[in-house]
Design goal:
19% strand, 30% helix
Amino acid sequence: MGDGKPIATGQDGVNSLIELKNGELISGGRDGSLRRWTPAPIARAACRQIDLASIPTDTVLAPVVEAAQATCRELGVRK
């Protein structure tokens, strides 16, 4: 993410994304559709895809990595 490419959602790419107060996300697709996403499954998928252990913890990213690792543990995905 962050490379400017569309997110593969079956929506022909995402044009917009908003976060609701309850933490859910709503994406607006190029195909005109709206989709609701719950954060836990998205976070679990991210925890499975990203090797947090490979990120050096002696950098300014250390607090972010530690928080991500804690979230992954809370979700039951140990990385």
